[in-house]
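Hey there, shall we discuss this one?
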Amino acid sequence: MRADATRASSSLETPEVQAEGTQNREADPTTAIARQLEALLMVADEPQPLVDLATAVGAPVAAVRQAIAALVADFDGVDGTVRRGFELREVGGGWRFYVRDEHDPVVRDFVLTQNPTKLSSAALETLAVIAYKQPITRSSIAQIRAVNVDSVVRTLLGRGLITESSTDPETGAINYETTGLLLTHLGINSLDELPLISPLLSDGQGGFDDVA
């Protein structure tokens, strides 16, 4: 009888009471921090260390760690929540959203069918740098090309032409390398079949001829 009365009482709660309960949960400090972290991580291109996240939201590292744990549990479907198609994963000392492994095939097929257009010259240049210098970090690619390559790298990742291969042990930066899909598009069996790049480069004579 007591359980039935409790359920009945709960079902009779007015929208105002239910809204108040939601507001109380949102007012919880951990929940508030978690929502901010969720927004930040949604746009992050690289795994974010706890210290950087704490600085961004202006909260202690311990509080951010607790909020991260709450988000991980939420996305994993712990305590009755819905298990999401993505997960919050710690990689190389930082946190970032990733598609769950079981959904990789459908995401890959979607990306390939939704993006049939040709690569831009910027994407092709970045892909060439990765192919010849891999494994290589995003910052190293940017130094070679002397431009920001964040969006281009995202494009190549989305096309399945490159992948995250490892993490630099000193800086924590992600190293990128090409995938088998690139070999398929190029019609080669291995990277060893890539043409030598030195004959394609200028020997600098044109510039020296202009010097008095």
User: Anything to note?
Assistant: The radius of gyration is 24 Å. The first strand starts at residue 86 and ends at 91. The chain has a mean pLDDT of 81. The chain has eleven helices and five strands.
